[in-house]
Amino acid sequence: MDNPEESYRSFERTVNAFGILNSEELDQFYALFKPISYTRKSVLTEAGSTEKYLYFVLEGVQRIVFQDDIGHEATFLFTYQGNFGGVLDSMLTGRKTKYTYETLTKSTLLRANIKEVRDLGKIYPAINQLLFEGLLFAFSGLLERLVEIQCYSADEKFRILLIRSPHILQLVPHKYLANYIGIDATNFSKLLNSVKL
């Protein structure tokens, strides 16, 4: 999305869905974000570092992933057009993260320094309210995800994912969807063929 006006409209649609910022606050908030592009499999935030940015996705797909010492991965979250992104726990606490935020496809994002966002929130309290509402939304999604992981079969997790994000099959490479669901990539095609869409 090379058109600055389209970038603004996408950002505006997402922010206005919360119904919190007036036009001046929206413009001041948007002014903090600068466009940045990444190639496929670029690391935006590395495990062991501190999240310094709040992202807004214009194009592409990213994921937040945990990797253990022997290379096992667990994908927790995908972000794509119209989503805010970043490693929230590190962003909020200022502590080093255990998670990696990376691109799965070529990606164009807007990026704002989290310190500048916080500073602007002191001038415009509605921005803090927007961030708080966004965090509540994210936390609610993480709780739902936790229930899915602990209570549902791979079939059920897959169906829930498709109900929540029906376009996900076209956006995310299937091996990452398999990891998200918690099955081996070789079994994903069997699952895909067995579930009636």
From TrEMBL:
<dbReference type="InterPro" id="IPR018490">
    <property type="entry name" value="cNMP-bd_dom_sf"/>
</dbReference>
<dbReference type="InterPro" id="IPR014710">
    <property type="entry name" value="RmlC-like_jellyroll"/>
</dbReference>
<dbReference type="Pfam" id="PF00027">
    <property type="entry name" value="cNMP_binding"/>
</dbReference>
<dbReference type="InterPro" id="IPR000595">
    <property type="entry name" value="cNMP-bd_dom"/>
</dbReference>
<protein>
    <submittedName>
        <fullName>Crp/Fnr family transcriptional regulator</fullName>
    </submittedName>
</protein>
<feature type="domain" description="Cyclic nucleotide-binding">
    <location>
        <begin position="17"/>
        <end position="120"/>
    </location>
</feature>
